[in-house]
Amino acid sequence: MPRSKEEPEGFVLPKVDLRPFTRDSKKIDTRIFLKGHDYESKQFLWIHVGAVEIRRSPEQGEVEQYILRAHRLVGYTDFEHDSAKALTIPMIGVKLATGFSGCVRLIGWIDFNPERANDLRIFNPNALDKEASTCKDCEKPHPIVQYVPSPDPVLFNKIRGMQVEIFIGATSDPEPA
Ligand SMILES: [Zn+2]
């Protein structure tokens, strides 16, 4: 039986819209696509999110390792007042593909190294924040949540080594200033 091309590798990719939970999503639009290992695999929209940051790992091994992260909304911190993250993705080989009309397209891969399974962390909009509370010590009360979402080693195992394309640009319909 021919495998379905509707999803990479025949599994249902959980699509996540993190725009309501991440910074600057009214101004900045980031779309993260995943492409299956199969040469003929299409790309699938995986994550829609506001502003992201991509950093190269300071530990220089044989492979250039990167981490893509997105912050929760301003004011969401952990108990130590470090700003909370909505998303971390372990990547390798991130390169600029093209830039046009203020939009950049990056390509890279989900790291295939199983040691980085714990770096795949995606906020679940359908789950309440674990151990969420409100800090009243600060001038302005704010939510205290987990520093990062829980890791998803099962999904990591399915998608490690897959190609990623990231489009970062201005939102097409920005809110008036
Ligand atoms: Zn506080």
Descriptive notes:
It is a single chain. The strands form two sheets. Strands 1, 2, 3, 4, 5, 6, 7, 8 and 11 form a nine-stranded mixed beta sheet that branches. A hairpin with a 7-residue loop joins β2 (28-35) and β3. The termini are far apart. The chain has 177 residues and is mainly beta. The chain has one helix and eleven strands, in the order ββββββββββαβ. The chain has one domain (8-170). The model has no long low-confidence stretch (mean pLDDT 90). Bound molecules: zinc ion. The site of zinc ion has 5 residues, from loops.
Précis, in short:
By secondary structure, the chain is mainly β. It is 4% helix and 38% strand.
Outline the biggest β-sheet.
9 strands, mixed
Low-confidence stretches: none
The share of residues in helices is: under 10%
Number of domains: 1
Radius of gyration, CA atoms, in whole angstroms: 17 Å
Structural class based on helices, strands and sheet pairing: mainly beta
Q: How far do the termini sit from each other? A: 54 Å
Q: What is the ordering of alpha helices and beta strands?
A: EEEEEEEEEEHE
List each distinct ligand once. zinc ion
The percentage of residues in β strands lies in: 35-45%
The number of helices is: 1
The geometry reads as globular
Q: Oligomerization state of this entry?
A: single chain
Mean pLDDT figure: 90
* Structure summary, number of beta strands: 11
